Amino acid sequence: MVTAQAQTLPCDHGGQPVEIEAARRLLAARDAYGRLLWAQDTFADGFAITTSFGIQSAVLLHLVSRLAMERCRRVPVVWVDTGYLPPETYRYAEQLHDLLHIDLHVAQATISPARMEALHGRLWETGLVEDMELYHRIRKVEPLDQALRALGVSCWASGVRGSQTDHRREMAILDGVRQRWSLRPLLSWSNRDVYYYMEEHGLPQHPLFDQGYSSVGDWHSSAPDSSSLSGRQTRFGGLKQECGIHLPGLMGEGI
């Protein structure tokens, strides 16, 4: 039986609807790599992953590089570059790109940082949730959705994990997000799982990890862990934990 939600989402590469509950049961029995295999088999060229080149991004990038090698078919990797990332993140992105030979597609807003600030001000400084949401819509959500549309993506995988935020704790392995399938192959992974995977495969840490960061995004909205805040609690000036990329919609947008 195909649910009403599944009817509004893309079909598989053969034109058949994806039955969400059956897919979730199948994915729950697989490991992270097996979940990526399922997505590529189901959606073929309509499958991509996203990355932030953040603290724990190397795991999913390594998994998808394995998939490309073993299947001889590269998976597009979409990186949303807000224009406000720390210098360490830009250098880390170059390092992982060269190490893992990923098929990188950079998504950026159509409006430059300077123009946005001239028209809207430094939105992250006002302390208003609505300004932070506008910032995220301009610099993150719309660029991502435009890139996925241009690539013809039906299903995208991300490295979100349930332990990161309250919202992510309630996520399913597979769901619909803004008219596309969203796969979370690492959803049940712990910080320990991430650490040991990176150690086992010799993956480099983000340079800010050694400075106490367990989560990093834009330079103005990230901070190292403290005695009272850790992980994504340190993000966005404490106003919110989600930027909107993993939410069904943002500020009424249906993109």
Q: Catalogue the unreliable spans.
A: 249-255
In the CATH scheme, the class would be Alpha Beta
Please state the CA-atom Rg, rounded to the nearest Å: 18 Å
Oligomer: single chain
Tally of separate domains: 1
Classify the secondary structure makeup into a structural class.
alpha/beta
What fraction strand? 5-15%
> Major sheet: size, sense and barrel closure?
6 strands, mixed
User: Helical region count?
Assistant: 9
List keywords for this structure.
single chain, 255 residues, alpha/beta, Rossmann fold, 6-stranded mixed beta sheet, 9 helices, globular, disordered C terminus
Describe this structure in words.
- With 255 residues, the protein is α/β, with parallel strands linked by helices.
- The protein has a single domain (18-237), classed as HUPs (Rossmann fold), CATH 3.40.50.620.
- It contains nine helices and six strands.
- A six-stranded mixed beta sheet has the order 3-2-1-4-6-5.
- The longest helix has 23 residues, at 129-151.
- The protein starts with a helix and ends in a 55-residue tail after the last helix.
- Residues 249-255 have low confidence and may be disordered.
